[in-house]
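Long-time lurker, first post. I've been practising inverse folding by hand and with some scripts of my own, and I keep getting stuck on stretches where the structure tokens seem ambiguous. Below is the full token string for one chain I'm working on. Before anyone asks, I'm not after the true native sequence, just a reasonable design that respects the backbone. If someone could post their per-position residues I'd love to compare against what I wrote down in my notebook.
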């Protein structure tokens, strides 16, 4: 008899100082067939220790915690574990705060007031190596960068047609797998294009890609 194909199990560390909220997050994550909570932390320092000991696939990091903030804990975790994937969880919608988190090394940003399905979607995206920005804040980020005109992002005239295609699809929030399927190329090729683009344009995160897309007028296309 042929056995069922095993579903890859994502190991998740939850860092949240409110126990009731943490229990709710734990129940939500553990209800997914491909996820398991392997550790819990109630403050930033505990999150760092748990991350080092458990080496989880994704760290869901509450930003506002005692002893050490999630922002500081994220930076320290990334210093100790460069490959760690941190997903920030917060009520803050300020774009300046958002930039600080991505600068610290967060791979994703989800609002606590969003639907629970958003967190699950974000965990999977971050685990797959993508950056994730809560859709409810994307408009605010776009407006912020339009107001600034993003004048320093003029480079890009030398993009190839394929690079431009990939960049547009990233800006619209498509995953590497979706881009590969739509363009008829491998996921590895998409990842290579993405790495080359980030280097060529000196981008640090998906926020820079969204800003660039706004300047180019791509997000107004239908």
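-- Answer (accepted) --
I ran through it position by position. Result:
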């Amino acid at each position: 008899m042929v056995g069922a194909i095993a579903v890859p199990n994502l190991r998740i560390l939850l860092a949240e100082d409110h126990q009731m909220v943490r229990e709710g997050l734990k129940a939500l994550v553990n209800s997914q067939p491909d996820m398991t909570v392997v550790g819990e932390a109630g403050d930033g320092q505990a999150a760092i220790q748990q991350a080092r000991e458990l080496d989880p696939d994704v760290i869901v990091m509450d930003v506002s915690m005692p002893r050490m903030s999630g922002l500081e804990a994220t930076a320290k975790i990334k210093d100790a574990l460069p490959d760690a994937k941190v997903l920030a969880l917060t009520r803050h919608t300020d774009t300046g705060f958002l930039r600080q988190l991505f600068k610290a090394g967060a791979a994703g940003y989800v609002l606590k007031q969003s639907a629970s399905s958003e967190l699950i979607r974000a965990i999977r995206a971050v685990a797959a190596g993508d950056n994730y920005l809560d859709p409810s804040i994307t408009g605010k980020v776009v407006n912020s960068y339009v107001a600034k005109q993003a004048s320093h992002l003029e480079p890009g005239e030398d993009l190839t047609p394929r690079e431009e295609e990939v960049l547009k699809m990233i800006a619209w929030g498509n995953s590497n797998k979706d881009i590969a399927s739509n363009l008829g190329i491998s996921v590895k090729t998409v990842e290579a294009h993405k790495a080359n683009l980030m280097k060529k344009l000196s981008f640090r995160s998906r926020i820079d890609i969204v800003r660039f897309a706004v300047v180019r007028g791509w997000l107004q296309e239908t």
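A couple of notes from the structure itself: Residues 10-136 form a domain with the Rossmann fold fold (CATH 3.40.50.2300). The chain has two domains: 10-136, 149-220. Happy to go over any region you disagree with.
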